[in-house]
Amino acid sequence: MLSYQHAFHAGNHADVIKHLCWLGVIKSLKKKEKPFTLYDSHAGAGLYDFTDDLSSKNKEYLSGIASLQDVVAKSSLLNDYVSLCQSFVSKDAYPGSPVISAELKRESDVLHAMELHPGEFAKLESNIAAYASSNAHSHKRDGFEGLIALTPPKPNRGAILIDPPYERANEYEDVVTNVERVLKRWQQAQIVIWYPLLSARSGNKHGASEAMCEKLSELQVPCFKAEMQIAENTHDAGMYGSGVMVLNPAWQLDTQLSEAMLEVTQHMGEQSSSSVTWVNKDN
Ligand SMILES: C[S@@+](CC[C@H](N)C(=O)[O-])C[C@H]1O[C@@H](n2cnc3c(N)ncnc32)[C@H](O)[C@@H]1O
């Protein structure tokens, strides 16, 4: 069952933390000249139009990227993110993770963006086509299967974004199983896993992100969690925030993300807060 459509949520608070982190990962990879490969296992459509029926339904971007557009950021990571988004937001659009990767990578760097939903894939293919001359590839395939098939990259440098819709409760377990499989093939892989923070109302998904992070921490790889709450965790809050778990993180990504999120939360309402917590520091 593939019913999730990211257009309903494009540019919301969850995209902000996820894309800030992903941008930080790409920035750090670009510090060396050696080419790298980016993998986006659940890529979505790549580009979203705030004026279409889906995005304009709940207008989630208003409390996300739109609240940051006039910010003069002190954090260089937030400044880069806002600057990148500005050229899209000024046209009522928002760049999804594969377009952010394609925008930021160099000609010699490679992008593999995977998407299984036929409609979303058609959009991804067309949105990525503009970057096709620069090693940006879209694949209509299962993202987890694609990660196993396409890793490790040559040369052995790069990062993975894992951003499933978590429509099915067993997707949390799929993440752990496949991260473990990838690490057996590519020990140094820098892996960013996005997850929702869900209140008790969420039934069998309540606690699933926390359990997933616990299992990922048992893989004994250096990792930290960065989380941003936008509401109080009351029983009926639903998704009250989200986080990213970063395995084998780049040097100083934790500090950069922490500084950026502290600034972001100043614009996301009184109940918002952020944290960065190391889970495994030196293995
Ligand atoms: C949260 S959205 C991705 C958003 C995107 N990463 C971004 O940040 O712009 C998740 C996407 O995963 C796709 N999807 C679901 N199951 C998949 C699978 N097994 N393999 C690849 N894509 C899948 C959905 O169709 C959806 O477009």
TrEMBL record:
<keyword id="KW-0949">S-adenosyl-L-methionine</keyword>
<dbReference type="GO" id="GO:0036307">
    <property type="term" value="F:23S rRNA (adenine(2030)-N(6))-methyltransferase activity"/>
</dbReference>
<protein>
    <recommendedName>
        <fullName>Ribosomal RNA large subunit methyltransferase J</fullName>
        <ecNumber>2.1.1.266</ecNumber>
    </recommendedName>
</protein>
<keyword id="KW-0694">RNA-binding</keyword>
<dbReference type="GO" id="GO:0003723">
    <property type="term" value="F:RNA binding"/>
</dbReference>
<feature type="binding site">
    <location>
        <position position="115"/>
    </location>
    <ligand>
        <name>S-adenosyl-L-methionine</name>
    </ligand>
</feature>
<keyword id="KW-0808">Transferase</keyword>
<comment type="similarity">
    <text>Belongs to the RlmJ family.</text>
</comment>
<dbReference type="Pfam" id="PF04378">
    <property type="entry name" value="RsmJ"/>
</dbReference>
<dbReference type="InterPro" id="IPR029063">
    <property type="entry name" value="SAM-dependent_MTases_sf"/>
</dbReference>
<dbReference type="InterPro" id="IPR007473">
    <property type="entry name" value="RlmJ"/>
</dbReference>
<comment type="subunit">
    <text>Monomer.</text>
</comment>
<keyword id="KW-0489">Methyltransferase</keyword>
<feature type="binding site">
    <location>
        <position position="42"/>
    </location>
    <ligand>
        <name>S-adenosyl-L-methionine</name>
    </ligand>
</feature>
<comment type="function">
    <text>Specifically methylates the adenine in position 2030 of 23S rRNA.</text>
</comment>
<feature type="binding site">
    <location>
        <begin position="142"/>
        <end position="143"/>
    </location>
    <ligand>
        <name>S-adenosyl-L-methionine</name>
    </ligand>
</feature>
<dbReference type="GO" id="GO:0070475">
    <property type="term" value="P:rRNA base methylation"/>
</dbReference>
<dbReference type="GO" id="GO:0005829">
    <property type="term" value="C:cytosol"/>
</dbReference>
<keyword id="KW-0698">rRNA processing</keyword>
<feature type="site" description="Interaction with substrate rRNA">
    <location>
        <position position="4"/>
    </location>
</feature>
<feature type="binding site">
    <location>
        <position position="19"/>
    </location>
    <ligand>
        <name>S-adenosyl-L-methionine</name>
    </ligand>
</feature>
<feature type="binding site">
    <location>
        <position position="97"/>
    </location>
    <ligand>
        <name>S-adenosyl-L-methionine</name>
    </ligand>
</feature>
<feature type="active site" description="Proton acceptor">
    <location>
        <position position="163"/>
    </location>
</feature>
<feature type="binding site">
    <location>
        <position position="163"/>
    </location>
    <ligand>
        <name>S-adenosyl-L-methionine</name>
    </ligand>
</feature>
